[in-house]
Each structure stands twice: as C-alpha cells, then as structure tokens.
Amino acid sequence: MPTQGQNLIYESGQWQVHLGRRELLTGGVAVPIGARAFEIVEVLVRSANELVTKNDLMDCIWPGATVGENTLQVHISAIRKAFGRDRAMLKTASGRGYRLIGDWTPRRQGSVSTPVASTPMRASEASAANNFPQIVTHLIGRAAAALHVRDLVSAYRVVTLTGPGGIGKTSLAIEAAHGLLADFDDGGWFVELASLSDPDLVPSTVASTLGMKLSGEISAASVARAVGAQRLLLVLDNCEHVIDAAAILAERFVRFCPHTTILVTSREVLRIDGEAVYRVPPLDVPAPGQETPDHILGHSAVELFMARMNALDGGFSLHAEELTSVASICRRLDGIPLAIEFAAASAATLGIASVAMGLRDRFTLLTGGRRTALARHRTLRATLDWSHELLPEMERRLLWRLAVFPARFTLDAAAAVMMDTDFDAKTVTEGIANLVMKSLVVQDKTSDAPRWYLLETIRAYALEKLIEHGEADTVSERHAVYFRDLFALPASSAKSRFSNEDLTRRVREIDNVRAALDWCFSPLGDVAIGFQLTAAYAPVWLHLSLIGECRDRCAHALLTSDAGREPSAQLQMELQIAFGSTLIVTLGSPEQAEIVLTEAVETADTLNDPDAQARALAALSTAHIYHGDYGRAQIALERLRQVADHIGDPGIVAVANRRIGTRLLTAGKLLEAQHCFERILQSPLPPADQSPEFWNYLDARAMARAMLARALFLQGFAERAYREAEASLAEVRATDHPLSICRVLNFGMCRIAPMIGEFGAADRAIAHSLEVATRLNAPFWQTVGRFLEGKLMVERREFARGMAVLREAFDTCRRTGWRVSYSEFMGALAAAHAGLGQIGEALNTVNEAIDGSGVRHGQMWYLPELLRIKGEVLLQPGTNQSVLAAEDCFNQAAEMAREQGALFWELRIALSVARLRVSQGRHHEAKGLLASVYERFTEGFATADMQAARTMLDGLPS
C-alpha cells in the first residue's frame, strides 16, 4: 500500500494529486475516482515518467491477495476516464506496465488533518457497521458479476447497476456490498427508495438511514456535508422513479464526501460525471438445439429454476425428458431471475409441462412471488407496470410500437413504424436512447451495424399495450411495408444477384420478415404486400437451406392468389420458380413441380426475362430428370444452354454447363462430360463481393469437381478422382451452404469412396450427408443418403441389412413418384437378393433395372455394371440358365464399357469373366483377358478391384 500520511501535493499543469486528502483535482476541483484507483495514481505519480510494472502495481495495491489482470484493467480504465481529455498522460507499455507522463512537482502543504487510510483487508471479526440485508440464500450464477462490481466500486466513486425489472440488481448489489465492507471504516448503509413517492424525500431518507439528526432544511448538500470525510459505502436501491433526486444526491456526495462511495441500483442510469455503469446481464440459458442433460444443467438459469423448485417441493425430482422443457422456459423468460423464480413456483404446483405451455399468457401464470418481496416484485406484470408507469407518454407509445419487432431492429425500421405520429427520426433516436437507459430496450453490441431489441418478456407486455390501444394493425402494416420496400425485387432481370452485404442484411431480418408475412396473410392483413415480400425473400430462405419454410411460404402465397387476389405476372413467376425448386428437395408432388415450373418458363418467355428463364429451366430440367422424363429434361437443358450463353454470366454458364455435363455423364459420354466439367473449373472466378444465390458459382464449381471425380474414376483414374472428390468438399465448405455440402457429398465422395474400397471414408461421408439432410429437413437428400447407405452395406456383403435399407428408400420413391438414381440402386438391390440366394428376385430386379436404364431413360453410364450383375446372377446355381446367356451379358457389358471409355467397368467385367474361365479350367485365357485390361491402368493400383485383379493374376499360371 502507498504511504498516505504524508501531506504532499503533486502538481503538473492544471492537475494535482493531493495525497493528504486522497484526491485527484483539475483546476482545484476534485475529480471522482475510487479508493483503489487513487492508490494506483499515487504509486504512479511517485514514480512519474518511470515504468511501473503490472506486478509491482498489484503487489503494492493488493499485497498478499490474488488479483487477476482484469481487475487492474478496470482501475486503469477508471483513471483514464478521470483524466478525460488528458487521458494520454497515462501511457501503457504493452504487456509490461504503465507510466504517468508529465512534469509532476511535489510540494508540501501546511498541517492538514488527514484521514487514516484503510488497510486492504479487514479481519472478518472486525466487520464494519452496516444495515445490509442478510444473504439468506446462495446467489446463483452471479459470482463473476459480484467480483466485477467489487472491482468497479474500488475504481469509481459512483457505480450504477442497471437492467430491466427482475434482473437481480438489488441481490447483486447486496452480495457485492457484503464483500466490500472491509474497505470502509465507517460502515455500509443500504437505503431503500422504492417506497418513496416524493423525490424531495430522498435526502431525508438517506439522513435517517445514516442516523443523522439534522436541523433546518434537509437537502442533498446538507446531508453530504454532514457525512464529510467519513469512509462510507452507500447503497441507494431502486432509484428509477426518483432518478433526478438520486443523481443530485450522488453528485453532492462526490463533491463533499471524498471517501464515500455510492452503489446504485436503478432501471435508469444517473448520467452524472464519474459514474460507472454495469448492465446486469441475464443468467446463462442453454442454446436452442443443444439439449443434452449435461449442457442444460451447466447453465445458471436452469440451476436457479431447479433450486427454487427444490425449495418449494422437497420431493421434487426432475426427469431427463423434462430438462428440455426447463431449458425452453428459461430461454423464453430471457434468463431473468425474478421471472424464473415465478416460473419455478408455478411449476411446483402446476408441473413443468403446464408452465412451458402456459408461457403464452405469462403475466397470468407467473404470479408466484415471495410474500416478503416488494409489491411490485410479487408478479411479473406488477414489475413491468412499475417501469411502464414511470415513462413519459411519448416513450410509452414508442415502446408499444417497438414491440412489433420480434427480433433486432435498426433506427430506420423503428422510424418507419412511427411514421404516422409526431415522431421524426431524431425523436425516435432520442426515445430509443432513453429506453435503453431505462433498461427497457437493449442495444445489440455483437452486431457490426447498430441494432436494438426488446427482451421477450418486455416485448410481450408492450405488445399487450399496443393491442389495448388499438394500434396493432396500423403498426404491423408499417412494419410489413418497410421490409417489403427494403427487399423489393429490382426492375432489372438480375433478380437473384445480391452483394455479400445485401445478403447479410437480408439474413439478419428473417424474424422480422416472418412476422410481417404472418400479418400480411392474416384476415386483417394486406396480401399484396405479402406477395411482394415472399417473392423477394425466397432467395434468402434458399441461401439458408430453409427449404421447407420457403416451400410453405411460397405455396401459401400462390394458394392465396387462387382466391381472386392474384399477384402480378412477375411475382407469380418468382413464387413458382422458388416453389417448384423446393418441391423437388422436399419430395413434393413431381407433377405439381413440373406444372408450376413450366408455367414459370412460359411467363419468363412472355416477359423476356432471361435470368428468370434460366432459373426456371434449370429447376424444370431437374424435375424432369428425377421424375424419369429424360427426353423433356434434355430439351430443357438445351434451352438452358442457349439462355446461359446469351446472358454470359459466369454463374449461370457454370450452372448450365454443370447440369449438361451431368447429363453427358449419366448418358455414358464420359470424356465429353470430363471436358465439360474441366471448362467450368478453368473459367475465371466472379467478383468476390457477389453472392448470386440461385447461380452460386462456388457451389457449381464444387459440384463440377464432384462429378469430374465420377467421370475420372469410371475412366480408370482412381487417384486423381479421389483427389478431386476431396477438393470438391474443401471448395464447397467455403460456401458455408449446408445444402450444397449435402449435394457435393452425395455426388462425389459418397460414390467414389465405396468403389475404391475405402469403406471407412464412405461411411463417414454418407453419415455426414444424412446428418445434414436430416437437419435441413430435406427428404430428397435423406432418401439419396439412405440409398447410398444401403448400397454400401451390400458392397460390404451385409446383404440383409442393405436390402432392408434399400427397400425403405424405394418405398419412399414409389410413394412420392420421384426416381432417385433408380438403376444404380436397383442394381445394388439385385446384388443383395443374389447374396441371400434369392436368385429369382435378383433376376427380376436386375431386369427391371436394365429396362429402366437404356437410351430412353438416360442412365447408360450404369448399364455395363447392370449387365455384369445379371451375368453373375445367371451363373448362380438353380437359375436353369446357360453359361452362354451369362457370357452374352458379359460381352454386351464389355462392349458398352469400351464404347463409353469406362475402364473401371471393363475391369470389373474382366474379373467376372476371368472367374468364369477359371471355373472352366481355361486359366491361360482368364489371365490373358484380365491382364489386357489391368495393364491399361496407370494409377489406382491400391483400390479394391485392382488388388483383386492383381491377386488373381499372380495366382494364375504363366
């Protein structure tokens, strides 16, 4: 501790450090600064212009105590705040310590009575006098907050704890004050101001609490002068309704009582010089979607709920399945301790499930306050009524209208919902600032752009007031109009192009858009606004992979238009494109998808809108493919190519070429497909600041790589194929688009890894794709994932399990009418039947697959493998088929594989034929045939089929 008895004054310019009176002054006027912060100034001024290390400071100010560096930072910040414009006098040596700069000259003053400094720690048995309420129960979840408040009190003369009603300001203040008493020789005094109705009574209430007998007029100044040099901690509780009087009293104490520190609790800050504000945070609540018991129980809000239920119901035992409901309750109550205590009290009698369901009417439900609580803390409604009645009429009306925002909002949005009032933009800004000060509005400091929000409980209360005053529909309309205008579709054809900044702004407003659309399509809403906003926001739902929500919103708009309230042709077209696209992913009606997308193409043609033509054609070609109409798909793809070339946009061209390349691959034109995919990868990247949602260029590149991997593998380049499959995943992860990840996995690694024989990698890829598809509620990709899972089981010779999974996936296809890579997975099902000895079923299945593969169905790429599988089945005992029939299948398969350039299929066919020749004793013929294919490979010798071929070759005679 610094030596404090010397009567020295250090001066530098207008600044003085008076060691005897323990004051920091500027121009002879004391500057508010806390006791510990002053002690740091004293150490620094005694070593003026010299570096004082952090360790030396902490050893000097807190000897023998364990103090974190954050505590020192709090005090340094307080000193800089006290220096104001001259804050640069306190220099930081990064990572080392601090230096007080200036020409600090010491001089000694005449005899002055100086107070005896307190020691840093007081023995527990010598606790100072106080009237602080006793701490009856452990304060849950506030250990770090209490420590931070104690640090603030030792650094600042006035500290205000602020926050909404029920956040726990008083409890935290009492907890912190008990830990601070050792630093105040003359004790600590708790002054409850909640019962005062007259602000003029604040000084006399403080004097009475301090036991003062003052004559004459009792004012803030007279009370402060009477306290004088005493070392007091004064806690002023519940100041919001007498805030001006409390601020005057605090200012007088700062001026006349150099050793008194004031700790304030208030929903509104004092706004006086030297005040430190601590916004009491809510208790920690479990994040949505993370519902494991350990995760839920590790949060203080849940801990408080459990503790209060246990206190009220000694036999309380929480079942694991109820934990999710408790987590939801705590989230919906914003982690506010008072509300959680009320909820726990209700749950003790009504049950947790009833409370969770009853929170819609939270103000009726949450009435279980303690009998000893203040009247305004006995129900949640009373708590909020207290804050509401203290507001000026203008701020009340603003608060009601802000309740229309279910999430964060900007100042522009707030001004929009006040447009029919006397409020201008400046008035709205000032009003929100005042509501923030009064803890009724919260500023979101995690966002780059300034945004504000209401806690859910406060919003529910304000929304009731808005409805009571008959303004709900007016405000809801202004809210919807604002977001319609903010996201209005541009007049140009490039409707799907957003800058990254545009897209970020749209994503941020999703909850506001949802609320606006709910009102638009309500009985009193405006469907015209709803049509425009739904169409404009569809690309954002797609970007976020919220496929089901996009489908339902678009369908609702289109159905509403059928009722005689039709949108414009352009809006109807946009809704149809989004709706048709989502029908595919969600396994909706394929006929409906084709109808709405065909109509969208026709409208785009009429409007001469090339961008819309391309988007509609891309979706329509996909619908035709997965509905099994490859002829019409080919026509749509040819038109898509023409439109893309006409537009010339890199994203559109890439998507068109990728889809055309995929059709070439599935038609068995492997080399053409390879060149198509390589052209996409060789084309230049578009501008980095553009994120056209429908034409996502990075997504198209990643998909091209995944399909290139397939084309390369089938041609015998296994190692390069595996590298491209891995690269496709790395590329798509950069898009941060879950649905794209799912697609790239399914087209790439999920198919390459099993063919190579990397079953572990295949397992991981398929599991990942299924997890993503399930999370996104994308039934199409869930079905593809199940098909791949079943096929992998068959490859592993787990025939019964594989068959069950495949049949389940085929049932989904039959039920919905979609054909998902039909031939490929029918081949796997046939192999499963054969593996289980079900030869008749195997032949029927493979014949059906072959019939569904040919030129008409566009699945030529897999036909060589199907013919090989059929040949293997024909060779099984009990088929009554000749070897010649099997050989005919192998010959057809080999010829087709050679035409396609599918060296991988050729190898598998050669292995089947070689095994047949060995069984016939024709070893030399087997070896010659297999070697002729094997020797054409230049890589991939570690793959499963290549190793099987090498083993057979090594075992056959020369």
How much strand content do the residues show? 5-15%
CATH topology of the domain at 127-279, by name, is Rossmann fold
Secondary structure tally, helices = 44
Helix/strand class: alpha/beta
Task: Estimate the mean pLDDT confidence.
Answer: 87
Query: Overall 3D geometry?
Result: elongated
CATH architecture classification of the domain at 127-279? 3-Layer(aba) Sandwich
Reading off the top of the CATH hierarchy, the class of the domain at 127-279 is best stated as: Alpha Beta
How large, in whole angstroms, is the Cα Rg? 38 Å
Count of individual beta strands: 15
- Would you identify the CATH H-level superfamily of the domain at 127-279? P-loop containing nucleotide triphosphate hydrolases
Please bin the fraction of helical residues. 55-70%
Largest sheet: 5 strands, antiparallel
Strand ordering within the main sheet: 4-3-2-1-8
Distance between the termini: 95 Å
Q: Which runs of at least 5 residues are low in confidence (pLDDT < 50)?
A: 111-126, 371-378, 689-693
